[in-house]
Amino acid sequence: VNFAAESHVDRSILDAAPFLRTNIGGVQTLLEAIRSCPVERFLHISTDEVYGDKDGRELSSEESPLLPSSPYAATKAAADLLCFSYRRTYGLPIIVTRSSNNYGPYQFPEKLIPLLIRNGLNDLELPIYGDGKQIRDWLYVEDNCQAILSVLEKGQIGCVYNIGTGEERNNLDVAQGICNAIADRKKLNPKKIAERIR
């Protein structure tokens, strides 16, 4: 199971080179390794970011076109295609999962949910990028792990599996939900905390 990746969109915009090395070159290294030392199945962990911006479109299916909108997403899409080219060319036992946005304990604090929680608890500004209307499907990390394990054990070789909740929220709604939870915990007015959303 290949979880390894450079995975922060903003950092890929600042410097795409590490994303190219890890997300494409690293995958190619692993594919060559399993050509030399065969395995029963190789599960590559991808992302729903390969489908591009949601803006007015229906939920993506496994057959949706790849329309990456950042260097990060482009490198993940390239890795998916590389995996399937090795499947076709060398007969490798490839499976790909594309998960929606994960959240959960110990997540790196630059990600939206842990950043908002940390800042909210510490009376700091709550940064929302753009207008906050970007829509995401938020998936709890343990639910994602259960789905990945299921695909690893029962998934069909050569297939893609999207993993998500099917419930979408925009970033402003997520921020408001976090403000409400912090207000409840600290016995404060949620509107007062929400005033720090920027």
Provide the descriptors you would attach to this structure in a database record.
14% strand; 7 helices; 198 residues; 3-stranded mixed beta sheet; 3-stranded parallel beta sheet; alpha/beta
Give a description of the structure.
With 198 residues, the protein is of the alpha/beta class. The protein is built from seven helices and six strands. The chain has helices at residues 9-14, 17-36, 71-90, 112-121, 141-154, 171-186, 190-194; strands at 42-47, 94-99, 101-103, 135-140, 160-163, 168-170. The strands form two sheets. It has a three-stranded parallel beta sheet with strand order 1-2-5, with helices on both faces. Helix 3 links the parallel strand 1 (42-47) and strand 2 (94-99). The mean pLDDT is 95.
Topology:
Elements lengths: L8 H6 L2 H20 L5 E6 L23 H20 L3 E6 L1 E3 L8 H10 L13 E6 H14 L5 E4 L4 E3 H16 L3 H5 L4
Parallel strand pairs: 1-2, 2-5, 3-4
Antiparallel strand pairs: 4-6
Helix pairs in contact: 2-3, 4-6
Strand content: 5-15%
In angstroms, what is the radius of gyration? 19 Å
Please report the distance between the alpha carbons of the first and last residues.
38 Å
SSE arrangement, N to C: HHEHEEHEHEEHH
Give average pLDDT, whole number.
95
Report the sheet with the most strands, covering strand number, pairing sense and barrel closure: 3 strands, parallel
Question: Are there runs of 5+ residues with pLDDT below 50, and where?
Answer: none
Tally of helical runs? 7
The helix fraction, in percent, is 40-55%
Q: Report the structural category.
A: alpha/beta
